[in-house]
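quick one if you have a minute, typing this from the bus. below you get a single protein, a line of residues and a line of whole numbers that encode the local backbone shape. could you go over both lines and see whether the tokens make sense for that sequence. anything you notice is useful, everything is just below.
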Amino acid sequence: MMVLVRLIDVVVTLLRILGGTYPAPAWVRALAWVALASLVLFGLGVAVFVVVHLLDIIEAITGETYR
């Protein structure tokens, strides 16, 4: 449970840094934006991979062939 509380605290601090309400050096703010952009691009990549390979994933789960 404490791990979840700590994770939420880190996310809130990151959002405060991105929003500019938390006093942080410019390089920390830039690094936070780079980390956020990387996370968004990774999520988009996973979504595209799932859409492209959706039939393969369904075939692997059900064992049936759809082609």
User: Anything to note?
Assistant: Helices lie at 2-19, 26-52, 54-62. The chain has a mean pLDDT of 92. The chain is about 80% helix and 0% strand.
